[in-house]
Amino acid sequence: MSEWLTFNMSDGLAEITLDDGKVNALSEAMLDALLEAIAKAADGDAALLITGRPGCFSGGYDRKLIQAGGSACDAMRAAGDRLTLAMLDYPAPLVAASSGHAMAKAAFMLLLADYRVGAAGDWRVALNEVAIGMTMPRAAMAIARDRVTPQWLSRCALQAQGLNPEQAQAAGFYDALQPPEQVIACAREQLQRLAALPRQAYRETRLLLNAPLRAAVLPWLQA
């Protein structure tokens, strides 16, 4: 589909694999490609799996753009805000498979999925905004407060602690851990399980579940 990711959809199931050959930095171009793929999956009412290249789900926003600031950084963050809404509003099951590191915005993507599978091993999940000198955005804080296990919230959002996969599961970023070679198979199995549930009931209940968080983040988004 693009130089940033691959997209496949068949028999009511869709799969997006982020792969820029590096750390899957969420630049504006990467985010635009991701949003386009999500929209295509949504138009097909497909249960959706989002994953990354082996060893790295994503390093989060493009650090160079954050450091440079200005209009390019603003455009990237606006695209990231659109991604938040696209994931909250997705009309079908949404599963994430993290094949390695998941940092900052990528970790928030995990929190917004319905079911999350992580790779066991020497990987880290982190809300590292404070560690790189950023005040946690208000919308991001609302997501963290809603989705991170309360006893881990300070360590994640304020202390910017990098979590190993077991800690990330305890904190609420993952529902299951698998050896790296089994992550995608497990995620696909869960996607098929969720896709088999009555779709209208799933869609309407998902909207009800996400409505309070959506209302909390909407005033702070640039989307």
UniProtKB/TrEMBL annotation:
Database matches in PANTHER family: ENOYL-COA HYDRATASE, MITOCHONDRIAL (PTHR11941:SF54), ENOYL-COA HYDRATASE-RELATED (PTHR11941)
Family stated for the protein in its record: Belongs to the enoyl-CoA hydratase/isomerase family.
UniProt protein name: Enoyl-CoA hydratase
